[in-house]
Design a protein that fits this description.
The chain has one helix at about 10-15; strands at about 20-25, 25-30, 45-50, 55-60, 75-80, 90, 95-105, 120-130. The chain is mainly beta and about 150 residues long. The protein has one domain (about 15-130): Sandwich (Immunoglobulin-like), CATH 2.60.40.10. The strands form two sheets. Strands 1-8-7-3-4 form a five-stranded mixed β-sheet, with no helix packed on it. A three-stranded mixed β-sheet has the order 2-5-6, with no helix packed on it. The protein starts with 7 loop residues before the first helix and ends in a 21-residue tail after the last strand.
């Protein structure tokens, strides 16, 4: 849809969704901007991942380690089969696309999204194994049979 075809209300209510990648069995640094949407001073953030195909979900508490919290929020989300969900370590399987929702809350132990105080971010994540090697080809140049040498 062309921008000219949108009315101003549609344009202002469109929401840009972010996508980030989570590698399996790895500590993944994720940058989000949650501070401007938060209504609680010094919130604890709860993230919920829901698989787009299976509907399976999992939650974890993530700690903001940014030194400039008013500009961006930096989180480490560790994907592992050994979970410590109150410390940002959770299992996110199977591979594929997952919808994530970040909630703000006062509790430092609550892992139930229904009990969180409010949603501050929604987006998508691609979960999978590390980057595979790219296939490269070597081009060989041969002269056509009809060309004189």
């Amino acid at each position: 849809m062309c921008l000219r075809q949108l009315n101003i209300r549609q344009f202002l209510t469109r929401r840009k969704r972010s996508v980030f990648r989570i590698l399996r069995d790895t500590a993944n640094e994720v940058v989000l901007t949650l501070n401007e949407k938060a209504t609680i001073t010094n919130p604890t953030y709860l993230i919920e991942f829901t698989n787009d195909e299976t509907g399976e979900s999992n939650t974890a508490i993530i700690t903001d380690t940014s030194i400039y919290k008013e500009r961006y929020n930096l989180f480490t989300i560790t994907e592992s089969s050994t979970e410590n969900r109150t410390a940002g370590t959770l299992q996110i399987r199977p591979d594929g696309f997952w919808t994530y929702v970040v909630y703000e809350q006062n509790s430092t132990t609550n892992l139930d999204a229904d009990l969180a105080d409010g949603e501050v971010e929604r987006g998508r994540a691609r979960v999978g194994i590390g980057q595979t090697e790219k296939t490269s080809y070597t081009r060989t140049t041969t002269k056509p049979a009809y060309e004189k040498t």
